[in-house]
Amino acid sequence: MKTAVAVSAVSLILSGALAAPQSPIGRLEGTVKGTLAARPMGGVQVLLVRLESDSSRTYSTRVDGRGRFHVDSLPTGHYLVQVSHPTLDSLDMALPTDRLVIADGRTTRSDLSLPSGAVLRDMEFVQFHPTALDVGRDPMPLVSEAVRGEGAILVDEGGERLMAGHSRGELEPRDIVTRAMWRHIAEGHRVFLDARTALGADFAERFPVIAAHCHAAGIDPGTMPIPVRPAAQLTDASCPCSVRVTTFCSPGPGDSGGDGLAPQGFIAPAQWAMLVAWWFWYRDSCG
To answer: Quick one: 115 exposed, middle or buried, by C-beta within 10 A (0-12, 13-18, 19+)?
Structure first.
């Protein structure tokens, strides 16, 4: 009798274990192609970072010969996806991240692209960003200058405000802000962007991607200062083409120019819009 009871108990335990619900999972698939020729790119690694603050985790995979990739059995949630390539790595450059959602039992598609086939020249200009998230990640996520525009302030580990002696405070041009930060860091201090008073609990709603990066590093930007430091942001270069255009720009009073607070102004987009419009007119007029 005791043996029968024991066997029944084991059977109930096993059946309960087998009936236990599994964690929801989904699947990601996509392609990586060149931006110009739209041909598959080889040697590309696709990286994913799960953004849920309680379980940040990184996944990676490589594309096949046809530029395709897939990642099975991904826990559901929000992810950042980025591609890396030996050419970009050799230049110490990284492409912007995309954000996607993995849903239970579904396949999410993400088609990505890499610069390819273009001859670049005059790559001597490197633009820097004053406030990159200083948590040991490479590449460093950027904390938008718009956060300072919302009223966040720069402080050190002792709470001393870095930009208190400047007339425009944290809204000074990025070169002035960066020099102040760099001098303070060189003296052995750390620098933080404090948005607790300016944004507080509204931070995640106003800047969801930045908040996700912070949460992945164990930082709640609504209640904690954000560690930041200057970092290289992008490289400027020219691409030879058959259209020759000369543009002139004379910034007026208050124009942010090339070192102003984000966004850096509307002159360059307007110039490009005029160039594109001119090109379509030229193409249509020539039959």
So the answer is: middle
Active-site residue, from 39, 109, 121, 174:
174
Q: Is 242 left (phi over 0), alpha (psi -120 to 50) or beta?
A: alpha
Beta-bridge partner residues of 47: 60, 82
Can you read off the two tokens belonging to residue 278?
Answer: 């001119």
Q: Which domains does the chain have, with CATH numbers?
A: 25-114 (2.60.40.1120), 127-235 (3.90.700.10)
Q: Residue 276, CB half-sphere, CA atoms under 13 Å: how many?
A: 6
Is 206 annotated in the active site? no
**What are the start-end ranges of the H helices in 38-167?**
86-90, 146-149
Give 37-59 pLDDT, tens digit per residue. Answer: 567 777 788 888 888 755 567 88
Residue-level length of the chain: 287
Q: How far apart, in Å, are the Cα atoms of 54 and each of 74, 215, 216, 217, 218?
A: 16, 8, 8, 10, 9
Structural tokens at position 111: 């088609």
Peptide bond into 263 cis (omega under 30): yes
Predicted confidence (pLDDT) per residue in 1-22, tens digit? 444 444 454 454 444 444 445 6
Q: What is the dihedral of CA 169, 175, 177, 182, to 10 degrees?
A: -160
Contacting residues for 136 by C-beta, under 8 A, at least 6 apart: none
- The whole model's pTM is what? 0.52
The answer to whether residues 100 and 28 touch, using CB atoms and an 8 Å cutoff, is yes
Q: Return the SS3 of 102.
A: strand
DSSP state of 239: -
